[in-house]
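Progress against Task 2.4 (sequence-to-structure conversion) is shown through the following example record, which the project officer requested during the mid-term review.
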Amino acid sequence: MLTSRQILTYLSYVHKGDWQLTLESVKAKENIEEEKVHEALSKISTGSIAILDEDYPEYWKISLNQPPFVLFYKGDISLLNNENYRRVSVVGSRKCTNYGINAVTKVISGLPKNTIIVSGLASGIDAAAHKAALKYGLKTIAVLGSGIDYVYPSENEDLYNEIIQSGGLIISEYPNDTQPEKSNFIFRNRLVASIGEFLLVGESYERSGTSTTITYALQIGNNVGCIPYEIGKGSSCNSYIKEGAILVDSPDDIIANLRRR
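Structure tokens generated for the chain above:
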């Protein structure tokens, strides 16, 4: 007899992590053949954690309107819940400057060793944040907008592997080699924002997807901080600071404003 968890994981798998389609199937109470479920589950080569599991992060149930039904992962899944760590999310432009990379690296380098850096494995600021964490001995979590086995962009394959080898964590709502879609990256931003207890914007410009992550962070009550930029560079960070974001030019600015869950 199938368990509820097996059915939920199966539905997430066949719908390629699509949250809405999975919900509709759950509500419809579809008649599912046990053989098909076992066949599908045998094709999942990574770990998975479901909303029905005891170790599923409680903060997602509390803070998110659409908490992930099933999360596929590689690495140390305990990093999502380990109370010995503090978590800082970092986002920013894919087409970033050397100033942005250097500033993010400098801030991360001064954070306590029990800090976990959370980002999205994208080019630019995301990659810089993960690399800084690895360089300075911090754990890091990468949240993908593609399948757990699909490294996007491909240029970050070595970084993907290094995160796992260093005792970090790779997570995705999308199973196996699910192809990346633009909507997936926007949707995954809610996880980037909610895993952290502070959101740092390393570099941002107009029409940046960073704004969606900021919105998610503010909705759940997290503080948002931005690295300031030179006048005339068109950086959205300065605008966010004017609107009330915390000006971050040292690790202490983050440490003093971490949200306690």
